């Protein structure tokens, strides 16, 4: 891909990251332009805008972006990103004073010192600059990840009939390891699993499609290939298995050990692959209609496109016939967030889920949403709740269960699917929503992290009774009811949660803004 495409991608993400500030160059970056005369006169005197310029220069120092130039409209000359580091030399920053933030007192047993304070504190210019630079770096990171993902998809070897998740040394079994901040299991080789990607020059490995012509499930094997052509005989139509063969693992290498969880449509098992513990999701025997199978395949296809440290890692897929299809993912040893919160209410639990752990958990969820909402096309989860957030042994959180998530090129989508206590009011009202519906669900999860209770379970109506499901949905749609926060919860956390649960979708912050605020507190900037 030409350097121009790389630069255009970076310019687009830099524009997005600066659009919320009054920097004069924010609206020109996307068109590869900058007015250095105005920058020196206005932007160099502002800490925010000045720090962004320093970050641009840091980006230009990388070889991938060394050929990226902007046209200076004031001189008609081209300037490199790297040269922006010296633009503000000799220009003083205007003194705007500190920013005071007040947070009420708190319960020390729940909220350890160092995270919140009950006195007014000023944020130094250095801290502000650090926060801004951190935000921009994250934005650039996601942009580069998406770009490289697309690049890798364009030149890869053709997929084999089956893949191996981990290739252990001869005579040894691979062992599962859990490392904070990582998303993949490692074998005896110590290397992470890397799944092959399809070549766009190769024929579609899923052709011909599975055609339905009868009443039973059959499997036939082609003489020219070890790949199978599957025939589902139950109703007119066909299954689309496109892009799954390249992730296929031999069924004989998957050994189910014990059930872990069960829902309305599927069940999750602890399993092993070549000695490595993994998680396996499959449909219930009563949910293997053609429509159910296709939805499951779509879920697998979507997850196979996501490679993010805050989303449960996709490892592969296995089947002998469509109704036996199994989704293979990493195993999260800590269980789901709802289980952890319920356990945390007991004095007998082994590892307390501290306030720091909770804020970090919220940050990880927000970071996962940043990635999903930045994909092209963007991905809206649509069923974000505490049960769909998994934790490892160190309480690192990852989003899971994309059974009803969808990719979309549209600004809004139509559907009314999900668990009502976490669903945004516009979805309950008419089913129309955008990615801001995920932000509302995140806000509900923030209340859970505060109270450790199921949302709305602590609220009572005017007669002293718990609210019925119907009453909750009616009041949420009317904007008359949101879940509560604990009385001792820090005010900044309460404010953030309430902003996420704003009745009007446009009033909710983006996932990136939520992640920025949470990261600022985790890293001690405020």
From TrEMBL:
Keywords for this protein: Membrane, Transmembrane, Transmembrane helix
Superkingdom of the source species: Eukaryota
Chain intervals with Low complexity compositional bias: 173-193, 220-231
Domain Protein kinase stretches: 254-526
Transmembrane domains' residue ranges: 127-147
GO MF assignments: ATP binding; protein serine/threonine kinase activity
Matching SUPFAM superfamilies: Protein kinase-like (PK-like) (SSF56112)
Key word Magnesium present: no
Region (Disordered): 170-232
Gene3D superfamilies with a match to the protein in the record: Transferase(Phosphotransferase) domain 1 (1.10.510.10)
Protein name: Protein kinase domain-containing protein
Organism: Aphanomyces astaci (Crayfish plague agent)
